[in-house]
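#struct-pred

JT: dropping the chains for the assembly here, can someone run the whole complex?
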Amino acid sequence: MAIDKKRYNMRISGLGGQGVVTSAHILGTAMDNAGKFASLVPFFGSEKRMAPVEAYVRASSEPIYEVGEVVYPDIIMIYHSQVVTHGKSYTMPFYTGLKKNALIIINSDVDVLEEEDKEVLRNLNAKVVMFEATELALKIAGTELATNMAMMGMVLGLTKLVNEENIEAAVRERFLGNSFVASGGTASLDSAIEKKFKKKEELLAKNMEVINKTFEMAASIDLANADLITKIDI
Amino acid sequence: MSLNKTLVDMNYLLKEAPREQHFITGAQAMAEAVKRASCDMAIAYPITPQSEVMHLVGDIYAQGHIKEYYRAEEELGTMSAIAGAARGGVRMFTATSGPGLLRGLEAIVSWPGHRIPCVLGVLTRVVNAPLSIQPDNIEMAYLMHSGIVMLHAENQQDTFDMTLAAFAITEKVDVYIPVSVSTEGFFVTHAKGYVDMMSDELAFTECDPYKAPVPAMDNEVPPARIQRDAPVQKSNFMSYLIHSVWQQEIWDCNKRAMKYIYEYLDGPIEVTNPNAKVMLVASGCAAAQAREANRYAEEEGLDVGFVKVRAIRPFPTDELNAALAGAECVIVPEHNIIGWLSKEVKAAIPNGGIVVEGPRVYGGMTLPVELIMTEIYDALGMDSLVLQA
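RK: done, full complex below.
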């Protein structure tokens, strides 16, 4: 199992609009907050809603020299089952280049893997974690836009790269930024900012609820002794 | 300088001035170096593909760090104007990429012969058809025989330090030929990295055009100085001799730059674990990948060492011979199809047969560390277990 490694090379495959690149940025910031190192590379292309999008994250407790896309990942995250079933990824099949003892997280509890895929993954001693991240996002945050938070929470929960505080600070930075100033000039401006701020605070709280839930879910499974596929109910 | 900067020598600027860490792109790092170089003038033609370098240099011109800046009509015009302005006695900078470099090449290869001190940024891009804008450093091969001093930056920090050092090296009286600083487009120019920089209130001592082996043009020294002796005007033994002597002088200038590469940049190579059986030799961005591979190999307890080549011209032949003396295999990863570095390394050592030509990627592809690891495992007679079949 790919946990407790010094260094993770992650490939995140999803569809346009799912927040693939956003979550890569948050992952990187969370690593930075934890006093560790990360580098990230979004795939350059004409991404659009439902079109394939990939982002790559390297995370390590040591400085990272390497640059460029992750060609040989030890973690793959699949944000949408169409990446597997429709080949919506930049590499076919989606696990091309996967290293031994790797971790794959798929946003689905439907059996999307063909028998021949399972055979390859078994030979590589990979572990596949499947759960309905979008359903979980809808259930807790009331929006499927939090799918990326559920996926990110799961990978961080399983790898224990950072703690909840590091993530919360990173999510806060992403949604509230560093430039937010709480005092405006006039009362009406204050109220407008307050309203906007309140909405963002709510958004942040919902996102954190999703992440905390996935941390709990990750803690409940024992991957070291698991079969190829571990399905987690939401 | 109108900004009331404190002018200091290059040794103080690079080695002693206090620095602070910044998280910036390679393009920003190059422009930040120009900002501290007391550069008089920049000329550019921002073709696609380029990097943000000359745009950012435009910004620092607007802020008053550079006295003059203009957009030329195209690259041949840019590079010709650089020559004219430098002969006029001012400190010059320009940057280009791939096809733009090749378009300006006719003027660029004449720079050393005209004794033009200037700094040229080369942010490498694909040059071959089909049209692409991706990183690939094949264009550096075209510069290697021009007489120019060539530095190759591994990352954003190197880009900053080498660009600054280049301004000092190019104006040394016993060098006085252009210095190019290359780094990989996109992987370094468009990506952020940590760069330690000194305050921008400090700047390199201003250009002294009279401290030169060839006097700058002014009212007493007309531009005809070089043309008066031009071999083209005669066709006899003397004209051939003039040209051959001049060429020898240019390549000697190139060699003499080496002592300044030691002075400002800690030498033309960096060596880790020099007595290893398998040595990785790489420059630029490939050196970052090789450095990573070297770390992987160290973690696995393999007998592997690493040489980063900072200077491509003058080529560090003696230094490489010393570093590779005990090697049984030399792996040279590169970001181009022809393998210009592996050819140089092969020719530099007496047992060139130990050089593995690769791994190479081109056309803009990433150079995975795993490809280098596969070569290491092969060299050590091990099974390559990392990669999926």
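JT: nice. Chain B touches chain A through 20 residues (CB under 8 Å). The longest helix of chain B spans residues 237-265.
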